[in-house]
């Protein structure tokens, strides 16, 4: 029997807690605020940004979407980020990827005040994650949301072998760090990994974040493993599918996240959670 991890349900619980927290903060004179900057007209990004704005508003936050033309220069973008860095009403700043070619993305990440870095991508915050810093700091929302989901289903990474496939800065690497900090033994695999499927079969916890539809099938999964599918891919018919072939994984995996309805809803819920935390840490020193 495979348990399907209900990301929507866990996200709902996180959102309820966030909403309650926002109400408490507003009573104390602090309204958490998020600014999302989008450059250009990428259709998928437009949908993500709209969803983030809708959710933030629904939870009672101050939410700004700053739509900029695709021709925006690096200097113009950095100047807008500087304005939000100085704006007391804004606690979290997010610059939506992908960015047009003329924009240097690493410099954009560096320009965001680490205390307002709601994505957790600033090297200061990445460094805190790697060193397992004991204080407060924002963590990349997709991997953090996955850790919340694992906890909700009583999957304790301690002592387990976790295999993360994909080493991006936004998912794979922070995921590997979080699992390491949670005392898993971690293998970080990628496109140059030799015999990837044999490596995958050794995982008690398998996180797949490659963007390759159905890269992993049931035959590549250790019976009983927990499988987290981060992928948001399109199959030949244009249907949204994951990096894991859900059908063949059923009956092999112990637990598995579906696509859609798994990691996706958790990412946005965690983004909201992080925004509230940034507000609390900066304005109330908690
Ligand atoms: P990315 O930056 O393109 O990184 C992909 C990673 O996968 C790279 O490390 C790459 O290896 C590895 N890879 C590619 N092909 C591979 C193969 N055949 N075998 C093994 N490894 C392979 O992607 P990303 O931003 O991490 O996103 C990954 C997927 O997650 C995408 O489908 C994305 O849409 C989705 N995503 C979902 C959410 C969500 O909230 N649900 C959030 C973020 C991302 P190399 O480093 O060697 O090139």
Structural account:
- The chain is of the alpha/beta class and 286 residues long.
- It is built from ten helices and eleven strands.
- The strands form three sheets. The chain has a six-stranded parallel beta sheet. Strands 3-2-4 form a three-stranded parallel beta sheet, sandwiched between helices. A two-stranded antiparallel sheet has the order 9-10.
- The termini are far apart.
- Bound molecules: NADP nicotinamide-adenine-dinucleotide phosphate.
- Residues 142, 165-168, 170-172, 190-193, 196, 209-212, 215, 230-233, 263-264, 267 line the site of NADP nicotinamide-adenine-dinucleotide phosphate (NAP).
Structural class: alpha/beta
Poorly predicted runs of 5 or more residues: none
Query: Largest sheet, order of strands side by side?
Result: 1-11-8-7-5-6
Write down the Rg: 19 Å
Overall mean pLDDT = 97
């Amino acid at each position: 029997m495979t348990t399907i991890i209900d990301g929507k349900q866990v996200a709902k619980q996180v959102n309820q807690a966030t909403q309650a927290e926002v109400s408490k903060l507003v009573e104390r004179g602090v309204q958490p605020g998020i600014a999302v900057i989008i450059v250009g007209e990428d259709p998928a990004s437009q949908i993500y940004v709209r969803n983030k704005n809708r959710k933030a508003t629904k939870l009672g936050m101050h939410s700004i979407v700053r739509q900029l033309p695709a021709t925006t220069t690096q200097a113009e973008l950095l100047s807008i980020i500087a304005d939000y860095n100085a704006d007391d009403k804004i606690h979290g700043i997010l610059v939506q990827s992908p960015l047009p070619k003329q924009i240097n993305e690493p410099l954009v990440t560096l320009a965001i005040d680490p205390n307002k870095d709601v994505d957790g991508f600033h090297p200061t915050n990445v460094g805190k994650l790697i060193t397992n810093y004991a204080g407060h700091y924002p963590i990349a929302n997709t991997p953090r949301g996955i850790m919340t989901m694992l906890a909700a289903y009583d999957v304790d990474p301690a002592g387990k072998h976790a295999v993360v496939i994909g080493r991006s800065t936004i998912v794979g690497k922070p995921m590997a760090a979080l699992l390491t900090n949670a005392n898993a033994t971690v293998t970080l695999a990628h496109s140059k990994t030799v015999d990837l499927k044999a490596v995958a079969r050794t995982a008690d916890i398998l996180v797949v974040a490659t963007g390759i539809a159905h890269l992993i099938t049931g035959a590549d999964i250790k019976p009983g493993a927990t499988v987290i599918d981060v992928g948001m891919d399109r199959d030949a018919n244009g249907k949204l599918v994951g990096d894991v072939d859900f059908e063949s994984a059923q009956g092999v995996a112990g637990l598995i996240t579906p696509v859609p309805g798994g990691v996706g809803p958790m990412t946005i819920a965690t983004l909201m959670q992080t925004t509230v935390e940034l507000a609390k840490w900066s304005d109330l020193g908690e």
